[in-house]
Amino acid sequence: MFIHIGNDHVVHTEDIISIIDCQAIENSVIMKTMLENQHSNKSVIGSASHAKSIVITNDFIFYSNVSVVTLTKRSSYQAGFDHHEICFE
């Protein structure tokens, strides 16, 4: 399934490695260094200016204006469809 992560981006749920709150990144030297390295590799999509979360996938890192809580709910909701058969009568 796919999940809308904000800023007109949709990613495959199976590609998501992590969803991290931007506040946590501001306090982490390791995360800042990782983001700087990925910026130089052109693997970061979006702007940090209005981001609430960061979505790390297999190929890219997305800045998202959607909160971690909302993205987690969306991914859990989508996962429910992956594991249940939907019948229409």
Automatic annotation (TrEMBL):
InterPro entries for this protein: RemA-like
Protein name as catalogued: Extracellular matrix regulator RemB
Source species: Ornithinibacillus sp. 4-3
